Give the backbone structure.
Amino acid sequence: MYLYGASGHAKVVIDIINASGIKIDGMFDDDNAINELMSIPVGHHWSGESPIVVSIGNNLVRKQIVQKLQCDFVKVIHPSAVISPNASIGDGTVVMQGAVVQSCAQVGEHCILNTGVTIDHECVINDFVHISPQATLCGNVHVGEGAWIGASAVIIPGVKIGRWCTIGAGSVVVNDMPDGAVAYGNPCRIKYFDYSLCCENTGSPIAIYGAGGLGREVAGGIQRINGAGKGNWNLVGFYDDSKPAGSSISHYGDVLGGMDALNAVDEPMALAIAVGDARIRRDIYERISNDKIYFPNLIAPSFRILDPLTFKMGQGNIIQDSCSVTCDIEIGDFNVMNGSNVLGHDVNMGNFNVLMPGVRLSGSVKVGDCNMFGVDSVVLQQIKVGDNVTLGAGSVLMTKPKDGHTYIGVPAKKFDYK
Ligand SMILES: CC(C)(COP(=O)(O)OP(=O)(O)OC[C@H]1O[C@@H](n2cnc3c(N)ncnc32)[C@H](O)[C@@H]1OP(=O)(O)O)[C@@H](O)C(=O)NCCC(=O)NCCS
């Protein structure tokens, strides 16, 4: 067996392999200055030797090395670890001294379960995750690809940690964490987002559902995210049921097919739903049955959060240029903020809402699901907007609207279509 990576983390991996009675045939490292580690010679030119365990602590670097090596990978498990016979551990994963993995837990490939961690029943840990020493994951916790859980953190049952999150040492995580969040404390709160950590950096494929105007805007937004060094998405194309496969969409790419083609994708792929009609957005999401598809938040680098510690956000949101939010903001899933939107303090927004450019929601506004706010419309403070409301362009909503109706004007009045 061979090790790739010859730093401090590798020293522990060597101990684990020695304790398991397995022979180490050699080591590799890209750093030409490292020629030996714990009396094992370190080479710098890998030429297919295998099987390998990548002994690098940094999740992103580990992933990049794994992608570079085309070979067999092995898992290494210290004899003192207690692994349920009903749990599964992926290839390339290292399980350190005293770790406990309980029944029906699923641990992905190239993870690190560090010293003394507890992974309770039915947890799902995706590839390239690092659970640091003494961290405790209660039952049914899900951890997204590449996330790093700090030492002695506790994650309560059923919580979902997004892809490439960082959870600080000693945190107690009581809420789901969106992709790329850096969060800490008890209770654990988001401090900021670091999308540069996301797997986006490794050129992850992303597609856009909806090949219309919003689709092109989202494509441009993805280019801006990449250009600002906040990701390295590889835009593979568009899905759309109303345009034939092969149609080219400006200079961004081609239509790859419709919903059937999307549901047949067999490798993990990110997707942005770029359809401006709020209810159709939800309908599209509900028709996606392919569990290889995931929904990152796509956030323009210019997005400003006054108080990241009190900011919460779900998945699949699209936030275009020049939007800003203040404090105690909660945004659900699959909302579109289409540019120059301002959310005041304590705004709470549900799912599948669309805010056209220039929309402002004043302090303590509560918004349900599938609402559409027209260009430059305003909602005054403390108004509760339920579901399926349309607010016309330039309108000012001053009273609570009825679900499912359209409001226009200043002040906005219910508009009845004849
Ligand atoms: C969460 C973490 C990534 C934040 O790193 P960072 O963004 O560089 O943060 P900083 O070090 O600049 O600290 C910023 C503030 O957050 C506080 N802070 C940092 N980490 C914290 C934590 N885990 N819990 C509580 N507060 C924390 C600092 O005290 C500082 O507070 P201040 O602004 O009042 O002075 C890091 O501190 C951490 O906990 N890493 C995990 C380490 C670990 O478990 N390693 C295991 C290796 S096997």
Notes: The chain has a mean pLDDT of 94. The pocket of coenzyme A is lined by residues 114, 132-133, 150-151, 166, 168-171, 182, 184-185 (CB under 6 Å). The chain has five helices and 49 strands.
